[in-house]
Amino acid sequence: MKFNFKLSKLTFLLLGTLLTIMSCVKKEFDAPPTTSQNPEIPASEIVSLEEVMKKLVVGRYTPVAIDKYVKCVVVADDRSGNFFKNIILEDFNSDLGISVLLDQNEINAIYPIGRTVFLKLTDLTISEFNGLPQLGMGVDASGSSPRLGFIPSALVASTLIKGASGVPVVPRMRTISTLTAADLNTLIQLDGVEFQSVTPTTTYAENKGTTPQSVNHNLTDCAKNVVIVRNSGYSDFAAELLPSGNGKLTAIYSVFRNDKQLFIRDPSDIVFDKARCGQAGGDTRITAAQLRIDFKAGKTTIPAVFVQGVVISDGSNGNIDSRTVILQDGDAGIALRFSAAHNIPLNKTVKININGLSMAEFRGLLQVATVTLDNVQVIGNGSVTPKQLTVNQINLDIHESTLVIIKDAELSGGATLGSNGGNITLKDATGSATLFTRSAATFASQALKTGKLAVTTIVSEFDNLQLQLRKIEDIEGGGGGGNPNPTTGVDEKFDGQSNNADINIPGWENIATKGTRKWQAKLFSGNLYAQSTAFNDSAPEMETWLITPEVVTATYSTLSFESANAFPVHDGLSVWYTTNYTGDPASTTWTKINAKLVTTSDPQNTFISSGNIDLKGFGAKVRIAFKYNGAGGTNTSTFRIDNVVIK
Amino acid sequence: MRRNLKGILLICFAFNTILTFGQSVKGRIIDKLTKQEQPALLISLDDADHIVYTNALGNFNFAGVETGEHTLLTKLGGQWVKITSFTFNGGELDLGTLEADVPSSNLAGNEISIIDVIDLAGIEGENDNVSSVLAASRDPFVNAAAFNLGNGRFRPRGYFNEDSEMMMNGMVMNDQDDGRVLWTAWSGLNDVLRNQTQIINQSMNDYTFGGIGGGTFVDLRASNQRKIQKAVYTLSNRSYQHRLMFTKSSGLMENGWAYIVALSHRYAEQGYVKGTHFEGTSYFLSVDRKINTNHSLNAVLMGTPQRRGRSTGSFQEMYDIAGTNFYNGNWGYQNGEVRSAREYRINQPIAMLRHDWKVGKFSHIFTTIGVQWGTFGSTRLDWYDAPDPRADYYRRLPSNASDPVTRQNVLDYLSADENNRQIDWAGLYEANSTRDYTFNNVNGDPNQSISGKFAAYVLEAEHYDNQKLSYNSTLNTRINDKLNLTGSLQYLREKVHYYRQLEDLLGADFYMDFNRFAVRDFPGDNQVLQNDLDNPNRVIREGDKFGHNYAIVNSKVSAFGQLLYKTNKFDVGFAINAAQQQFYREGYTRVGIFPESSLGKSQVYDFFNYGVKGSVTYKIDGRNYIVATGSHRTRSPYANESFVSPRVRDQVVNNLTNEKITAFDLSYHVRYTNFKGRISGFLTDFKDRITSDVYYNEEFQTFVNYLMSGINKRHVGLEAGMEFNLNNNFSVLAAGSLGDFRYTSRPKATISRDNSAEGFVQDRTVYINNYYVPGMPQNAGTLGLKYNRNQTWVNVNVNFFGKNYLQFNPDRRTEKGVEGLDPIEQAEKFKEIIDLEKLPNAMTVDLFLGKTIRLKNRNSLSINLNVGNLLNTKNFITGGFEQLRFDFESKEPSRFPPRYFYAFGTNYSFNISYTFN
């Protein structure tokens, strides 16, 4: 018994010891040293790139067959995506550079700009692609025509032997006219250059979802020499705006057949901070307020300055002349008159060179004339919060060409915004003013909304105070509106809407009466439609209305639409009409339409046609509403509406 | 709850008085030493004319006994041992409580019966779906399937892990979100898990309705184990090299207490496959307190914290280059030491409390509350703006080069040096050290920016931390000699927390919580690239969670009832089961790409399920039986397979439906003293199964979710097992199964991307009707010779595996897969795309040698050697899978070749075990 007791203790001891020893086996790994150093390759093993270039035979894939190395430095990598599966190396021992094809993405993580590379020549192949010398490995015959093979990813490390990083990379100074074949595949810098045609919406390339497009832009100097700057649609800067000034550009020089081409590494390679050719000056900023003061003081010719601000005019709706830009700069604003129609969008921050231009009043409105598109440089996006004023508070000296919002306003003096020559009266408790709408405005035929309104408007002058809308959404609240004497029916496929955004169609209403959710545009399999769902809604109840414009049933008497559901748990969709829309669905008298709707037994995500519904008996003028009722947590079905047609 | 049980009991007792007793002999067996009742003992009346098993209470009952002299025997340690003799004069005879000297393991008494099939599983798949076996049963076929055929990934009747139920003390261990069992959570504790009952297929049992493949019930009570002290050392070349195991069991002590303490440590610098290290400690504590004759309590705490390196299947091309089918691309040398990038880090302890209550003479209720918690992570490399670092990335292979000279260059390079085929850790550190990035608007703060070494490569752990809560009450009652009732109530709640955690920056300064896939799809959009919109541009460092972060919460309430009626000629059993299951997703981050449907709790999905099963045994005579069983049940879709892309949003598959499973089998059993055997025919129909697979799509550069619904399968086959004792020393064992497991429908596939709400393929028909079900040999068999004399054992088994098909890519078996091909003109190509790959048949030989030496004071020393694959077959493909990618342009299947797993070559485990008092 005693013996066993001892043995038991002994075993515990033994076990404990072993467990301790074994548990102590380390599993933390040391970090390997990462100081990058050049490999020990004797100078006798290193040749100049000139030796390699001698092997190049146009139209052939020639094995380099030199069992040595070229010592080079990476001057362009694929970090921005403008280079793809190739990097550009410059030789330490000659003035030459070369493009090397690698079957690898994101090469920059291993071979960033400034890394020394010892290029092992043994298995490499040299050829020319439309005039551009390239190094690769073997010939890829898998396509329709043979091409130079990429260095396979397994061999990248053993072919491009890593050396020290952080080598300074200095571009060579060139001019467009002095670029020669010896500069191919090297980093060059051009000074005093600008893009030949650049508008405020020109982007580096076209980034269009699944089909990005590369774009060539002509670059010129003031002597009108031209070279192409080519940008990949896959680059991460493809959608950025092209700079419009003049200055220096660093890039890799390349060639495609007879075209000289430049490839930048990323947008920081372009520093266009000078005025364009022929427009020297404009290096100093003047505020819009200062311009107004200067004008009052009798100075009508503008010195070498630029003005900068946010565009508050929206040319796309036709209510502002296509040659006018209204720019708000802080609390002041200024109108600028262009020599031709521009397409500068709303809410862009722009810098406009107004060196030597003149100021004058047109029927009381101060304008700078005549601006050309070359003078405009888009800096980015901006926004202006309209200042809340009463009619009486508006002072043309201060507020002209700025954005204001007038609350509790009422409109009168015409059936539509465009009636009475476009002059409608806007009245609030303090006074009244003219709200002017051009006949060319897209919303000129919209009926006046009734009730108390909040109106966002540009303060303008036409002999007297004149207010101008930018878009129909500038009028908020109230009732009525829409199409009083409709000359069109409805044919809405929702294709003009943006995915995941609330439905917003002129003449339509999209109003939440319970909860906050509205009808949204949704994209599925390339089709856009209107959707409403209480799924994951935090509000206890959801009721939302999608209401068509008013139609005259004598002309447009047949309604049809399609409905679909997803994850159905309840009946939440209904269709209604009214002959007397008050502007608020809650106070409007609605009559239910017994239309054929999707049911829970129908397959999900499949649109069911309503068939044709005759509207003739409903009244002379009707509006149709699609109402969704639901509740987050319980009644969460998703309903969809598409192809609403009244004809 | 309590009131319900009382109600049930009342009904039971009422039955008891109504029914009359027959010509029967009954009794109860307890262990001589521990005085504990002995469940699942094989009891024979007169040389196996009548055989029964004791139930959970140790009770047995023979019906229809003839009058006269009888001997009662039980099989212990492989031998029939006489318990008592008696004279029966008819009526009802109660032999009362009988004692038997039951060894702590009443199995064959050697180590071979307890193995961890994970240890033998060869190279694992990405989804370790290896069935594991803790112990064998007394059925020769089940035994053989577990120990001899398990290595070849044989799955009896084609049933998977989720088709069997694993219960410990009443706690269900199957994960609710995928039905699978984390066997690792109790690995290394073999010696204390022996008190178990194997539930074979649809057979009636005292615990549970069970899966279609039955299940395992392990009794963890300390008082139910014999007093023992045991130390074991194991030397092996499987998943570990060394194992030290110590067990001390007190048995039931006079003061009413009992305890078991078990500790084990397993360690391997390297397992069978290079780069697979192992380090794990296992602990187990079970304490019993017998309060009085009717009540006892048991508490258990166990855990197996461990880390182990993984090996994943590779391409044949890579195996050939490496010159071994055990190539593992998951590791590389770092400062001269093997470092694995794929490691499991598991620490999921289990604790439970059990209450046993004897109600009257004939009823027993036990109740268990169990919890499991902790962490489960699997490490991998992640990278941002950097080349794919994986050593066997397909673009690194020679076949990816079209120029024959270049191809040879790649081949030469990869063959030249092991390092060229493994992860270049130094290169990853070096890449991180040269990164110079600046991010503005860091952590959503416009005034904050960060500059420095933004990691190109990091080591991360994907976590699936599983927390379980289980409640179970089971009642067993004998209504009368013929009728037994079993019932249980169960509640399960499980929360699996899925997230990524940064483990090692590999020398960089920081990492960013960006969705690198969204960056490519939506360049310049700072919203969609955020993994967490509420913490945009978040800087992450070691230990931080990042990427996806959500939980799947499952809960289930179920009730089970079973009646078992026994007569002279027939045993009839009937059981029903009803369960209400629900699950939901809870997102912890608002994901940039799906801001509306990622944060917070999703809709709750509810499913009602039921099951019925029945069994009839016809006893032709005491030696020949015919057993027919049948069941029909429904099973909820698993949450894991229901969410379209759970990492980023809470959308589920359209029309979630319960799976329906119907199974029948008919068996003929023979039990003579020297010969026992069984032959069964079986048929199982699966209807409306859903599966979900995730893979990285090169074309879309994002994770793609491949969902199939409406999968129907029919598994038909024959299985047989027999054991024949040639004489006292030699016996022959033969077991095998012939299966025909096929799909019987054309499922619909829905493909969606993590980075797009567009379900870009909806309901694509997959033409696999009549295809074989892959993933297991449908035919397998073993032939064994056993020698046993004077505590010496020698077993040799020859195993055969056939009709195994490679896991296939459903998308190749679609209209799109063969679009533009003429089935007659281009028949060869057509077949190459749609035909399944049949894996070669294989044969292996296993050997077992064992010797037990009895020492004085009832101490003993056991030594045994267990050798798998004695002939060192190294080309035995046990499984693999076709990649889910397919080049629809070239229609060239070899462009994305399959990955294979191979069974280990000769592998062994050598045990020395010392048992002492």
Strand content of chain B: over 45%
Span from first to last CA of chain B? Answer: 44 Å
| Sheet with most strands: strand arrangement of chain A | 1-6-7-4-3-2-5-10
Q: What is the 3D form of chain A?
A: globular
Q: Mean pLDDT of chain A, nearest integer?
A: 87
Of all protein chain pairs, which has the greatest interface, and how many residues does each chain bring to it? A-B, 62 and 71 residues
Uncertain spans of chain B:
1-22, 104-136
What is the CATH architecture annotation of the largest domain in chain A?
A: Sandwich
Strand content of chain A: 35-45%
Number of helices of chain B: 9
- CATH class of the largest domain in chain A, please? Mainly Beta
Q: What's the structural domain tally of chain A? A: 5
* Total beta strand runs of chain A: 47
Question: How much is the radius of gyration of chain B in Å?
Answer: 29 Å
Biggest sheet statistics of chain B: 29 strands, antiparallel
Mean pLDDT rating of chain B: 86
Q: What do these coordinates show?
A:
The complex is a heterodimer of chains A (647) and B (917). Chain A folds into 5 domains: 7-162, no CATH class; 172-274, Beta Barrel (OB fold (Dihydrolipoamide Acetyltransferase, E2P)), CATH 2.40.50; 288-381, OB fold (Dihydrolipoamide Acetyltransferase, E2P), CATH 2.40.50.140; 387-480, OB fold (Dihydrolipoamide Acetyltransferase, E2P); 490-646, Jelly Rolls, CATH 2.60.120. Chain A has an 8-stranded mixed beta sheet with strand order 1-6-7-4-3-2-5-10. Chain A is 7% helix and 39% strand. Chain B is mainly β. Chain B is globular and about 95 Å long. The interface between A and B is large, with 62 and 71 residues.
